[in-house]
């Protein structure tokens, strides 16, 4: 039996996934969480075989959960099921140790087959996204990404500096690097482009 924990903030999607996977004779839904922090607590309590998670949720994101699983050496395999059909997200997911990356509009039987494949130790990646993921690389460093994300959320350079324990000059340098690398005119355009590419 493949024991699965679901992490999805949209109740209807969470219910649909539970119902679809629950019809499979070899898959058992052991728990469901509506946010990343609850999912993390449930992961450690239930020790499922597989975590099926969205990327963006309140609290910890799906990528953050995958990184925690990797960091703590938990015997849980992570499968992302998302609407984000962007190569940048897939690359970051793979870097976080994710074993599966599927789109929500994929056929239901594809998800069950993917979970079986991942449970056997394999990987299940949307083939079109896999192809795109290696044609365009993410130019941003982790620090640049963090600064740009906060700037895109409306924080000033001073606020970002205080949050990240950096000088304002260093924050401005990071933002200038982002703008230059992405070939745009300002921090807002840089944020939008990086979001569109899946790099944030």
UniProtKB/TrEMBL annotation:
It comes from the Bacteria. Keywords: DNA-binding, Phosphoprotein. The modification 4-aspartylphosphate is found at residue 54. Residues 3-119 form the Response regulatory domain. Residues 133-198 form the HTH luxR-type domain. SUPFAM superfamilies: C-terminal effector domain of the bipartite response regulators, CheY-like. CDD domains: LuxR_C_like, REC_DesR-like. GO terms for biological process: phosphorelay signal transduction system; regulation of DNA-templated transcription. It holds the Pfam family Response_reg. PANTHER family: TRANSCRIPTIONAL REGULATORY PROTEIN DESR, TWO-COMPONENT RESPONSE REGULATOR. This is Response regulator transcription factor. It comes from Denitratimonas tolerans.
